[in-house]
Amino acid sequence: MSNLLQDVIRLFSNSSIDENLIVENLTETKLSISCNDLLIPAEDDFNRIIAEICGRDSINVSIVQNENTWNYVQNANDNFPDFLQNCSTIEPSEEKEIIVSITKKNSEQIISVYYVECFCTYLNELSLLGFLLKLNEGFNGQNLIIFEVQNENFTKFSTQTIKFIAKSNQTPNNEGRDVDSLAKIKNLCHCNLISKYQFTPSDFYPITKNNTILDEIFSRVSLLYSAIFLFDIFHIENATIQYRLNGYRTINQELNFSDIDISSYEIYYQIYSWVYDGGNIIDKIGLARNILSLNFDKANLKLSETTFEAIKSSYKIYQKENIKQYIEIRNKISDQLIELQNKADKIVDNFVNDYKKTLLAIVSFFISVIVIKVVSSGDFTGGFTKEVTLLSMGFLLVSLIVMFVARWEINKQLIRYSEFYKNLKERHIDLLDESDIKRILNNDKDFNDNKQFIEKRRKAYTILWVVSLVFLFIIVIVLYISNLNFCEIIKSLICCIKNMLLSNQ
Predict the structure, then answer these.
(1) With 90 as the cut, is the pLDDT of residue 504 above it?
(2) Which residue from 67, 147, 218, 486 has the least number of CB within 10 angstroms?
(3) Cα–Cα distance, 54 to 409 (Å, whole number)
(4) C-alpha distance from residue 300 to each of 129, 182, 242 (Å)
């Protein structure tokens, strides 16, 4: 134990000091004595002793006599020599009270602890709600709180987010708080404390223990919070706890916080961790409640030592009984994936068939024109008259419109294809774990491959369609020009040029 406050008191008095009067909480460490003598210390002696105080904290000295008070407050521009000068006016032989206190500051989530036994006694004497309130204030909205014990020989005690360390130790890393469990509990359990004090069992479960009263304090609260995250309902007023557990047996009970048997705190935490650590949490917590209701003492929450093993064994049996249903669901999803594959192929086939049909219709028209011309005149020269050429252009234009309609239709089918796949995933989210669905669906790889296949085929056949129409358009123009009388055209051009020249003369 530190002797800091006692050493300061001894500078001002030779009276005996009752160490049981030392009080320490989160914000202050304090010792006061009544005495009939008064010493005026040397400033160097005073400075030597208070040098042991952590730099983030400050010391205060008060002397009270006959309703008069003489104060020295460090870090408040108080002058210690002036304080000593004022103390010389105090009547030495009359009864007086000397009060020495250290004001503690929470700096970067670190709080000093000078008398760890006194501080632990303070925590132990707090009510449950008082304990939670003070810790909540210490966290101050952050993820970690460190109590730095001003004793290099102190043995470390820690939970995931609350650390008691010796002052020579390196500041531990922030491991973060278990926010996932807080999000899950809203739909599983009800407790009137959760909204006000957003703690989880990992905030209290001892990771490293040091065989002090801290072990008992945090083990008790850890057990309580593990039960809160497992039972159906908890209602806590002061030290009175009311809870409800619906399992194979329905249990309603009231007990006092001090009645909790902490011997089972590790089992409760193991069950809590197993329930909230992945898998189907609804199935897990339902099965855990069934086994808990048969294996605990409702008066003090004590569990049978085999409870956790019974829960795990029951879960394995549950999984085996449901494996047939699981396989059926997987097979059903596989069948739907095959249906999706067929749908993707059909979308592409429809687009390709539209292209083939329009191209076949145009080619058939051209062949008909040529055949008719050959039958009527013995050759195909002059078959592409002005009227036939315009009709051919009409066919080509219709084919172009058909292409745009086919593209619009394939885009709509692609949207429906994506919606169908999305509904397939959502339809099974209540039956299978999300990670399992991802594994069955190959993490969407097959869907994305099919979608890319459709888009690539749409692009390729669109290019082929456009190239075919351009090629046929050029053929129509060439055939039309080739059927004109070039001699007459040239003669007409010469006459026009000759008339232009004569008119200029």
Answers:
(1) no
(2) 67
(3) 76
(4) 19, 25, 12
Instruction: Say how far apart CA 455 and CA 422 lie, in whole Å.
Output: 19
Q: Residue 220 is encoded by which pair of tokens?
A: 């008790």
CA 357 to chain centre: 55
How far apart, in whole angstroms, are the C-alpha atoms of residue 308 and residue 292? Answer: 9
pLDDT at site 372? 63
Distance of CA 284 to the CA centre of its chain: 21
pTM of the model: 0.64
Sequence-ordered list of residues with C-beta below 8 angstroms from that of 37, at least 6 positions apart, any chain? 13, 14, 15, 92, 93
Distance CA 29, CA 1 (A): 13
Angle ∠(347,353,355) on CA atoms, nearest 5: 110
How far apart, in whole angstroms, are the C-alpha atoms of residue 157 and residue 117? 13
| C-beta atoms surrounding 342 within 10 Å | 10
Q: Where would I find the beta strands (DSSP E) of 216-272?
A: 233-237, 240-246, 250-256
Task: Decide if pLDDT at 354 tops 50.
Answer: yes
pLDDT for position 477: 76
CA–CA dist 337, 351 (Å, integer): 22
**Angle between helices 386-427 and 445-482 in degrees, nearest 10:** 180
CA 279/CA 504 separation, integer angstroms: 99
On the question of pLDDT at 57 being above 60, the answer is yes
Q: Which residue has the tokens 């829960």?
A: 311
Whether the CB-CB separation of 96 and 90 falls below 8 Å is answered with: yes
Percent of the chain exceeding pLDDT 70 equals 80
Query: Contact, 262 vs 216, CB < 8 A?
Result: yes
Coil vs helix vs strand at 482 = helix
pLDDT tens per residue, range 94-121: 999 999 999 999 998 999 999 999 999 9
Say how far apart CA 223 and CA 233 lie, in whole Å: 15
Q: Across-strand partners of 243?
A: 234, 253
Residue 314 pairs in a beta bridge with none
Could you give the CA distance from residue 475 to residue 498 in angstroms, rounded to a whole number? 34
Give the pair of three-digit tokens for residue 84: 């000593």
125 vs 93, 133, 217, CA distance in Å?
Answer: 37, 14, 10
Amino acid (1-letter code) at residue 100: V
Backbone region of residue 286 per phi and psi (left: phi > 0; alpha: psi in -120 to 50; beta: other values):
alpha
Read off the tokens for 120.
């632990």
Q: Can you spell out the DSSP letters for 119-185?
A: HHHHHHHS-HHHHHHHHHHHHTTSS-EEEEES-TTPPPEE-SSEEEEETTSPPPP-----HHHHHHH
Q: Quick: pLDDT tens for 225-262.
A: 999 999 999 999 988 999 999 998 999 999 999 999 99
